[in-house]
Every structure is written in C-alpha cells, then in structure tokens.
C-alpha cells in the first residue's frame, strides 16, 4: 500500500514521521521551505525532549508523486478544496482519501470532488506542534479511529499500519459519536486558548477560564443532543477539562494559527455548532461570540500592538 499525506503541518508531519519506516509514504505540502528542509536534512521529530531525524520523501508538486492507494488529508479547513484537487491527482482509480481534520464539513468538501465512495472519515487525538521548517513535536500518542466506510479492508489496513508504527489505532462502523466528541472538546479548548493566549492547561487550572469552557461545551452538547447524536462522553465538560489538563503544555492549533497570523478553523469548529444550532433551533450565543472574537483577532493581526 502506498500512502500520500496531503498537508505536512504538525499532524501530517508527525504521522508521516512514524509511518515512514513501515510503509511507502510521501508528504505533499505547498510550503516550499518546510518541504525543502525535510528533503535536505530529514524530518526531525521531538518527543519528551529527544529529537530524531528521518528521511521522508516530500514535495510541493503532486504531479511528481506516483499514484497512491490512500491519501491522508491533514490540512487546515481552509485548504480542504486544494486537498481535494490534490487527492484527485494522486489517488489510483480505487483509492480512498481519509480526512483526519478537525471540525465538521471537510468530508463533504472532499466528496464533492472525489465522490462519497472515495472518501473516508477518521478521528485522531494525536497531539502535535510544528516547531519550524522540517521540525515537529509529538505531544501525545492519542488513538486514531478510521471509519469502516467506504472500504472496510482499507480501514483495517490503515489501522494495522498505524499500530505497527507505534500509533494506537482502530476501526469503527459508526464514527458520529467520536466525531462529535472530538468536536465538543475542540469547541471547549481551541477558541478560548487562542483568545486568552494560553496553553491548554490554563483552561483547567484557572477557574475563570474553566467557567468559559463550560459555557462553550454545554451549548455544543445541547446542539448534539438536538441532532440525535449519542455522545461517548459521560461528562463532556469534565472530559474537556481533563483533555486540557492532560495536554497542559500544548498550544492548541488555533492558538498556533493566531500567533503566526494565519487563518483559523473557527468556522468548522465553533462555527459548526452555531450553524447546526440555527438549523435545529438551539441557541448558541456564547459560541457565536467566540466566533466573532476569533475572526476579529484574524482581521486585526496586522494592527496588533507589540511590546516595546
């Protein structure tokens, strides 16, 4: 099986680093400096203070890659349309693209280009931070679960490959509960860490911040229940705070985006809750506020006051 990872950011780089010794893999990303560093000196991954380098093929040109059986899509939501076009170039006729992205709506974007029979959904709780061109940090080996559709054999093959590479993985015939569970945790963590400019742990250790997490999560849970989703989270607020504490030193992906002045995934995370809430008649005023604040942060990035 040949795999291409479309999007060599934090998550894609960590996955590629681990899979490279056990399967044929290529990283595809438009960031030329990052791709150049990987090809020149290898991809360097830090874990628990130790850094290891591995040689992994990387390119900015999808046309240079031989057709693959699977494309793992790990780009940010704003790049999903590009990822869909890239997957269309890379995949063999029977190949499948699996999205491991945050939020809701990415699989639908891929399906519009590739067709529903060539798009799979996966949920991952791997923690990763991009440190710079050619450098990434693994923050935690959380499990990755692949949906059985559209190909049970490919899903099992991917899970087996991940496990062989030292990454916990499994297969599920119903991902809705996991997709929404991860969404709700992201709703409680990402926007607030970006706005407050704090690592995840601050949300669990500072009572004023924990109270904000509760507001965001409780709205999201109300929307999920109205949508008929059975959540695997027994106590969504407590479990969101537990994730924040377990990843205390980690900077959320949305905080990383805000700090470097990049677009965030607010529309597919908190924005998804707002849209579903409107559709279902469930009020989501706090998540609407979080969306407005993050979008204002994005828009005012060039005007930001710097310390003297």
From TrEMBL:
Its EC number is 1.1.1.169. Pathway: Cofactor biosynthesis; (R)-pantothenate biosynthesis; (R)-pantoate from 3-methyl-2-oxobutanoate: step 2/2. GO terms for molecular function: 2-dehydropantoate 2-reductase activity; NADP binding. It is an enzyme of class 1 (oxidoreductase). Residues 175-298 form the Ketopantoate reductase C-terminal domain. It catalyses: (R)-pantoate + NADP(+) = 2-dehydropantoate + NADPH + H(+). GO terms for cellular component: cytoplasm. InterPro entries: 6-PGluconate_DH-like_C_sf, 6PGD_dom2, ApbA, Ketopantoate_reductase, KPA_reductase, KPR_N, NAD(P)-bd_dom_sf. Catalyzes the NADPH-dependent reduction of ketopantoate into pantoic acid. This is 2-dehydropantoate 2-reductase. It comes from Chloroflexus islandicus.
């Amino acid at each position: 099986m040949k795999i291409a990872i479309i999007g060599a950011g934090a998550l894609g780089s960590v996955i590629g680093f681990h899979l490279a010794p056990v399967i044929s893999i290529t990283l595809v990303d438009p960031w030329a400096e990052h791709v150049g560093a990987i090809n020149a000196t290898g991809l360097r991954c830090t874990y628990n203070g130790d850094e290891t380098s591995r040689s992994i093929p990387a390119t900015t040109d999808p046309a240079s890659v031989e057709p693959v059986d699977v494309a793992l899509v790990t780009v940010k939501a704003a790049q999903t349309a590009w990822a869909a076009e890239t997957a269309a170039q890379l995949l063999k006729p029977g190949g499948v693209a699996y999205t491991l992205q945050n939020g809701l709506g990415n699989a639908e974007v891929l399906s519009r280009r590739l067709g529903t029979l060539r798009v799979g959904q996966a949920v991952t709780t791997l923690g990763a931070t991009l440190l710079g061109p050619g450098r990434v940090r693994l923050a935690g080996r959380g499990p990755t679960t692949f949906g059985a559709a559209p190909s049970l054999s490919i899903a099992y093959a991917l899970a087996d490959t991940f496990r062989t590479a030292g990454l916990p993985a499994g297969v599920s015939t119903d991902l809705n509960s996991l997709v929404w569970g991860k969404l709700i945790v992201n709703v409680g963590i990402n926007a607030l860490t970006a706005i407050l400019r704090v690592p995840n742990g601050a949300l669990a250790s500072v009572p004023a911040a924990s109270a904000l997490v509760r507001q965001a999560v409780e709205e999201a849970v109300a929307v999920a229940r109205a949508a008929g989703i059975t959540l695997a989270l027994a106590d969504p607020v407590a479990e969101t705070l537990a994730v924040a504490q377990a990843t205390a030193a980690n900077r959320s992906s949305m905080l990383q985006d805000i700090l470097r002045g990049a677009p965030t995934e607010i529309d597919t995370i908190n924005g998804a809750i707002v849209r579903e809430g409107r559709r279902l008649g469930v009020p989501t005023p706090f998540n609407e506020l979080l969306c407005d604040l993050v979008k204002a942060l994005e828009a005012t990035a060039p005007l930001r006051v710097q310390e003297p």
